[in-house]
Amino acid sequence: MTAEPITAASKITSRWLTARLLENGHLIRGKVTAISKTRFTTFFSNIFRLKLNYSSNAFPNLPSNMLLKSALPDSADSLNMGKLEVSCYRVFAPAMPDGPLVRCFDAVHSVRSNRSHILMEDLSPTHFQPEIPIPPSRQLCELSVQSLAQFHVFGWRHPGLGSSIGELLDVVGVDEIVRQLQRGLAGLADELGDALSPHRRAVYDRALNFMATFWARRLTVTHHNTLIHGDAHLWNFLHPRNPILGRAHLIDLGTCNRIRPPTNDLAYMIALQWYPERRALMETGLLQCYHDHLVSLGVNDYSWDDCQLDYRFSVVSHLFTPVFQWAGKRIPASVWWHNLDRIFQAYDDLRCSEIL
Question: How high is the mean pLDDT of the chain?
Answer without folding.
Answer: 94
